[in-house]
Design brief:
This protein has about 475 residues and is an alpha+beta fold. It has helices at about 5, 20-30, 60-70, 80-90, 100-115, 120-140, 145-165, 170-195, 205-215, 220-230, 240-245, 260-290, 290-305, 315, 320-330, 365, 390-395, 410-430, and strands spanning about 45-50, 55-60, 145, 340, 345-350, 350-355, 360, 430-435, 440-445, 445-450, 455-460. It has a four-stranded mixed beta sheet. The chain has a three-stranded antiparallel beta sheet with strand order 3-11-8. A hairpin with a 4-residue loop joins strand 1 (about 45-50) and strand 2. The two termini are about 30 Å apart.
Amino acid sequence: MSETMALATPPYPAPLRHKAGLLRRFVIGWGSWIHTLFEKSYRMKMGTVRFPLLRFFVINDLALVQDVLEEKRCPWPKHGLMTELLRPLMGQSVFSANGAQWQAQRAMINPAFAHAGLGRAFPAMRAAADAMAEQLHRAAMQGPVDMERAMTAVTADVIFRTLFSQPLAPAQADAVFAAFARYQRHVQPYAMLRLYRLPLLGRRRRMARAAADIRALFAPLVDARIMARGALDQMPAPGDILDALLDARHPHTGAPFAPDDLLDQLATLFLAGHETSASALAWASYLVACDPALQDDLAEAIAQVSGKAALAPEHLKALPMLRHLFQETLRLYPPVSFLMREVTQAQVMRGKAMRPGDLVVVSPWLIQRNADHWPCPHAFDPVRFARPESSTAAREAWLPFGKGPRVCIGQGFAMQEAVIVLATLLRHFRLAPAPGPAPEPVSRLTLRARRGIPLVLSPRHGLEQA
């Protein structure tokens, strides 16, 4: 990668000069959390933000971050505001539950997810990536391609194949993309209205409708699988995550998931399994599109490692720069930019008195852009993850998957999927930013671009899979 591109700064919202007051924060926060940040946010160890409903304590001190996420001294459950925002989509699933309920669900989910290990998931990921390439060849002939929509389609297809042993049709993927975009458009104003104790203006109802459109994908498949298991119990099961969840039993009572609980878990695995990866992969495609030299180096490495053969697991291990590209993307554009935890007991941190019910925010967005941890923190430099001097920061100040007992269960899954998708994309296409303004990141439930990420895709003849 060229030295100039190593110092290139991809787009992010210019921080406010000073902390916004209540009214200005309401107006700005209506559309995006990261736009409310101010200059000191990127340097401070700990800050306080007051809303009419709650006090936020933003913690960037790494020792305190570890204390919270590792739950070293006391429980730090997910805050009720976050579970309220997610309930229409995920119900009381492993993502939003707390305490004993979360522990029991995690004990049931872990074996199910392990059942679809990386080796078993590889063929599904490769098949979905190959299908993506075919669709992009057709789409690219029509003009610039919105990579947010394209990456949502491929990651939703991956997780659908892993959950249900069948591909997700392009029309279904488009429906998921549109429904979750609607949910995000309503959830951010809903959060601001709740924080300011204002009427919700029908936002809850609109969120519920968008969530129902997504969850409607699963119910028929679950019903059909249950009927098939009952009628054809001598036939081999598909061996996917749905089968594993149907076989899962509560660690204490031995009970299976109730039907509604099963749908909650499937919705969580589907949404958490594709939305965050889609966000990061869309930004990764933009970053590499802006660096033609890096892009060509990666395409050449892919060709040297795999030739025209289908991608294999051993190829991924020989492509460390693709992994570093994705790690750097996750540093600059963490899909979940703010982790919300609830204060459960009165305590003092850095001289600030915290009461039960207060909200603690650990922000990957801020920690991963703090100059105390990363040199040139806003610059795109994937090589930093290959440097020995970055190992401490990569271990302690890189947390796109969280840390501690609630670390993302799908971290390895997401990293493997990303390398497969990016390798497939780069062996088929040259990428370039579409004419027009750079994409603008906005942070709601996940990090997305305000108007998408359009790229021009040109076939890379001679490197495609035979």
